[in-house]
Design a protein that fits this description.
Elements (H helix, E strand, L loop, with lengths): L1 H37 L36 H7 L6 H9 L1 H4 L12 H12 L3
Bound molecules: heme C.
Amino acid sequence: MFHIRRIFSCLALALTAVALVAPVSAGESLDMKLVQSHCAACHTFGKSEPHGQGPNLYGLIGRKAASASGYTYSSAIAKALGGRVWTPELLDAWLADTQAVAPGTGMTYFQDDQPTRSHLVKYFENLR
Ligand code: HEC
């Protein structure tokens, strides 16, 4: 009887652990799914992966805008953002309307949906 009780309490603990972990990983995979469907056509995200139509975005948050080596940026983004550092706030503004942040940039993207933007931004905050 004692053993059975112990097995049940272990099982309960295990189930609690799964319940605590599951929502986080589900959130992470939603961030990743959105990035895959909205950004992966033009960008890569892995460390030292080659640039696509757009620059590789590994380590974006905290790095200087328009600074990925080996990528040729438009003068529009270099002029508008040159010297600034990517923060979650700047990335949110960029994703809301790239052309408002850097008129004439080679990336045209408008995302009006705030929750979608915050998932996209969260993916890059965790990409280090
Ligand atoms: C149709 C292609 C395309 C898509 C889709 C796209 N981008 Fe871009 N992106 C570009 C190009 C091209 C540039 C370079 C812009 C320039 O030089 O003016 C760029 C630049 C950027 C930059 C500036 C990077 C730096 O080094 O300063 C960020 C940040 C960025 N994109 C994020 C995203 C995110 C996040 C998504 C998905 C929501 C996305 N992009 C979707 C083509 C794209």
